[in-house]
Specification:
Layout lengths: L1 H16 L2 E13 L2 E12 L2 H23 L1
Antiparallel strand pairs: 1-2
Length: about 70
């Protein structure tokens, strides 16, 4: 649990630094016999600060719970 908590904390901190992930998809526009036309379309996956904060809180809780279990 401790390791998962630390990973969530790191991902949450990175989420504050990176506001989103951009990627490109290719879609087929026209396909007539041997003629094919494709178009690249840019897309974005936003990563909001609220999600980052939640990840940090959950990661912190999992880390603390992991430490308490090891102690008992």
């Amino acid at each position: 649990m401790r390791i998962l908590g630390m990973v969530l904390i790191i991902v949450g901190i990175l989420g504050f630094l990176v506001t989103g992930i951009s990627y490109t998809t290719t879609e087929e526009v026209l396909d007539v016999g041997p003629l094919q036309i494709e178009r690249e379309k840019g897309r974005s996956l936003p990563f909001t600060p609220v999600v980052s904060g939640i990840l940090i809180l959950v990661g912190g809780a999992l880390t603390v719970m992991g430490i308490r279990r090891e102690g008992t």
